[in-house]
Amino acid sequence: MPASSASNRRSIGISRQFIGFGVCNTCGAAPNVDLKLTIFRKTWKRNVTDLRYRALLKRYFSFTNDVFNMPARILAAPFIIGALLFLFLTWEVDGRYSWWIIPWVIALAVVFTLSPQINWWWYQRYPPDLNTGLRKMLERFSPYYQRLSKEEQLRFRQRMALYQEANDFMGKGIEDVPADLKAVAAACAVQLTFGKEDFLLSPFEHIIFFPQPFPSPQYPENYHASEIYEEDGAVLFSAEQLMKGFLEPGAYYNIGLHEYAKAFERVDAQQEFPPLGEGHWEELEQISGFSYPAIQQWINLDPIPLRPVSITLFFTFPDRFREVCPKLYAAYARIFNQSPAVGEVLNA
Prior knowledge:
Blueprint: H1 5-19, H2 33-61, H3 70-92, H4 101-113, H5 115-125, H6 132-141, H7 143-147, H8 150-166, E1 168-171, H9 179-193, E2 206-210, E3 226-229, E4 234-238, H10 239-247, H11 255-267, H12 280-288, H13 292-299, H14 306-316, H15 318-324, H16 326-336, E5 338-339, E6 344-345
Parallel strand pairs: 1-2, 2-4
Antiparallel strand pairs: 3-4, 5-6
Helix pairs in contact: 3-4, 3-5, 8-9, 9-10, 9-11, 11-14, 12-14, 15-16
Protein name: Zinc-dependent peptidase
Keywords: Membrane, Transmembrane, Transmembrane helix
Transmembrane segments: 74-91, 97-115
């Protein structure tokens, strides 16, 4: 679970420098929080808008070897060549050729505008795979992935790749979001929805990473590890806690599964979940070793809702969950259409 309180204070002090909340970097105090709340919310909105704009720029203008942008670029290539050809003819032969540049440029603009849809259409039919490094990460650190058959492992990786193509991944206080950080968030989302046909959890399509715990308009006085911000369709993570929960699930509570479980509840609002009571907290601690105070301290929000915790532990400790809470396990297996204890999708 979380490190010592001194370590937490160090983490909080660092994260405050990234947010610009008006805290004192020397003493860590946050004077006049109530007076600054309105300013903070406006700054948050501006920052989220700026992050989205930067993500769009990166998606459309990044000329890297990112495989996800290739279909639209290939489709655009003949129009670029055509426009350049008539530009050359206009310059070297006859100015009247300039009129022929216009349709090529219009066609290029259409491809540019529709490039996300073109890419998505292509990759739904020819889904990409993850690179070797990310595959090895799953093989080493994901017990859920390890239980799947070879065919299902391929489908899991393809869904991870598609999830990353379909959503915006943005960093706040992180210059470029690392590939493994994106992959961990995608793995948590895909794990939760692997038994479903619709696995994207729309409209939660903006995934924002902070280096460490952060405040937000919903919780301006709490430097917390994660949340969903439904108004903007955003899922927010502290990268430090997210990675620890994925790499060492037996030692650290998985905030990725936790937040996507909350998103799942909102996306599938008509779903009938089995009733839960306060007595389940004792059973969940028996399953995982994580007590309510420990989870609350790790996320640093209070109260912690019971439902997403139970869903997180259903995926993290499936064998113990089935042993301690067999009826609840059966209910969740039906809802998520999968049995993580045996690595099977129930109705493929």
